Amino acid sequence: MTGALCGLWMLAAAAHSADLMQAYSLAQANDVVIESARFALQASQQKVPQARSSLLPSLGLNGSLGDTKGSTVYTGTPDVTRSFKNYVWALQLTQPVYRVDTYWSYDAAKASAVQAEAQFAQTRQDLILRVAQAYFDVVVAEEALEAAAAQVSALKEQEQAASRSYAAGVASVTDADDSRSRAALAESQRVAAVDDLDSKRAVLMAITGTEMMSLAVVDPSASLPSPKPHDLRQWLDEARQSNPNVLAARAGLEAAEFELKRTRALRLPNVDFVAQYGGNYSSGNIVNPANYSTRVRDGQVSLQLSIPIVDGGGLQGQVGEARAKQRKAEADLEIARRQAALDAQQAFGGVINGLAQVEALKVAVSAGTNAVKGNRIGYGMGIRINNDVLNAEQQLYSARRDLAKARYDTLLQGLRLKSAAGELGDAEVEAINRMLVPNPRVASTAEGRDTPAQ
Predict the structure, then answer these.
(1) How do beta strands 436-437 and 80-98 pair?
(2) Which of 46, 94, 193, 330 is the most exposed place for a label (fewest CB within 10 A)?
(3) How far apart are CA 326 and CA 328, in angstroms?
(4) Averaged over 19-32, what is the pLDDT?
């Protein structure tokens, strides 16, 4: 079924760019980390019916079948050798009446199940972050490769122009060598960008299980979302209360407290209601002088009481261990709260600073575009030198690359902020997905990967 879905997805991806939601869907089906976490959750949930069974009646049947042969000497008689068969069976019903430790064990199992659910929720949030990080890394790497290829193309043109000017005697050999050096350096950067893109695509493929070559990009005209509410303190409070790691640690503390109560209750008496019905048959006997068979049917109803008195210190050791684990769980809860608040604060600052950086880089790209045009015109008129044009172009390409990275970093920080507050889910992925448009430069990027720009 999964293979068929992947096949349909690949047919659709051939017609248009794949988007973040498709990558997330593939990761949900193919990522081994989320699969492992899902089975771990199922295993933890099975502890609840196991613990509940200790509170419910149990019914068992026991039996045995035997063959006895022996000899007996009675006073004044010769040895008597006998052989006979016998069987015994018993049907027993047991219902716990007073077992305090069992009740606390059941509560601890339920708390452990809640802890497992919170841990799985955190794993799902981590999956969204891993998919988004890998997806954005690929798109940014494609942007960097495009910028590197464009810079190689521009520097090749400048190198040829400088060579012609030197041959005509209107430029120095230094200008020609400088252009050649810049072109060679740009080509090395393009090769490094190709390797980086391959690495980023491998990471995305490891998560999704499918090679995704054409990815949708953020619409340049889209407005990046700002944190709502725009109040850091509210985000910190929400993170301390609703972060999945905090919820898991809180459930872990409850489980540890119940376990401490359970070990203390081991010193209390236990009372069970027991009802038994059974029978036995023997075709003879080896004890009495007269050999005769017996067949018995009997039933019993009783209350069984057991009281621990001396156990060599084992119970005391169990209580001490449970108390230490309970205190550790308290410390783990505080650690989770502080970490959640720290994550929320860092992500909130990342979004705010990222939005400001995006706006500044938009201005830089606009100004850089005008600067390149102006320097090219000035170079043609003889009032600008070759290095002026090269520097302007390099600044423009760097600004474009940095702008793309800033956009995706800001979106990722927004997802991390939601994750810290325990609010990250499919809706947040869909919201970002609506901002994506097909990549108009896929073909040129692929061409730049195969051959150096000329």
Answers:
(1) unpaired
(2) 46
(3) 5
(4) 93
Confidence of residue 382 (pLDDT cuts 50, 70, 90): low
Q: Identity (one letter) of the amino acid at 117?
A: E
- What are 89's strand-pairing partners? 63, 279
This model's pTM is above 0.85:
no
Tokens of 219: 């619409």
Write the CB contacts of 3 (distance below 8 Å, at least 6 apart in sequence).
Answer: none
Average pLDDT, the chain: 86
305 with 271: CB under 8 angstroms? Answer: yes
CA distance 81 to 290: 12
What's the 3-state SS for the chain? CHHHHHHHHHHHHHHCCECHHHHHHHHHHHCHHHHHHHHHHHHHHCHHHHHHHCCCCEEEEEEEEEEEEEEECCCCCCCEEEEEEEEEEEEEEEEEEECHHHHHHHHHHHHHHHHHHHHHHHHHHHHHHHHHHHHHHHHHHHHHHHHHHHHHHHHHHHHHHHHHHHHHCCCCHHHHHHHHHHHHHHHHHHHHHHHHHHHHHHHHHHHHCCCCCCECEECCCCCCCCCCCCCHHHHHHHHHHHCHHHHHHHHHHHHHHHHHHHHHHCCCCEEEEEEEEEEEEECCCCCCCCCCCEEEEEEEEEEEEECCCCCCCHHHHHHHHHHHHHHHHHHHHHHHHHHHHHHHHHHHHHHHHHHHHHHHHHHHHHHHHHHHHHHHHHHHHCCCCHHHHHHHHHHHHHHHHHHHHHHHHHHHHHHHHHHHCCCCCHHHHHHHHCCEECCCCHHHHHHHHHCCCC
Q: Name all domains of the chain by residue range, CATH numbers in brackets.
A: 2-55+108-266+314-450 (1.20.1600.10), 56-98+270-306 (no CATH)
CB 403 within 8 A of CB 358: yes
pLDDT band at residue 383 under the 50/70/90 scheme: low
How do residues 208-242 score in pLDDT, each as one tens digit? 998 888 899 999 888 999 999 999 999 999 999 99
Contact 26, 2 (CB under 8 A): no
386 pLDDT band (50/70/90 cuts)? low
Residue 377's pLDDT is what? 78
- Residues paired with residue 275 on neighbouring β-strands, in sequence order: 93, 301
Rounded Cα distance, 73 and 238, in Å: 87
